[in-house]
User: What shape does this take?
Amino acid sequence: MRTLCASTLIGEFFVIGFAGLVAMKDPGLSTSTVWLVSGAAMLLCVLLCGMVTRPGGVALGWALQLALIASGVFVPTMFFMGAVFAALWWASVHFGRKVDEAKARAAAGAPSSSSTADAA
Assistant: This one.
């Protein structure tokens, strides 16, 4: 799960950065505010890459997805991009857990290296 979720978060990191560049063109938003919010969201993406398997990591990821969709108020394209990344986040969590379960089953069913050496 970690690899899939981290890949999604790194993609979001770049999208948030580009959305910050677009938001800077809005005369109603100050540049410092745009980069404070964008920078915090980008930092959260990077930090979540390391904590996605810890308790609360997936929930924080969902919060980030909701914030990304809500950012469409300032950059309308982000409604679409936020929805796309929310779908990717769901797929990363869902299929990542299935992969982790399959790996655990395979590891439990595979003979250990010491028992195969004893058999020879």
User: Anything to note?
Assistant: The mean pLDDT is 89.
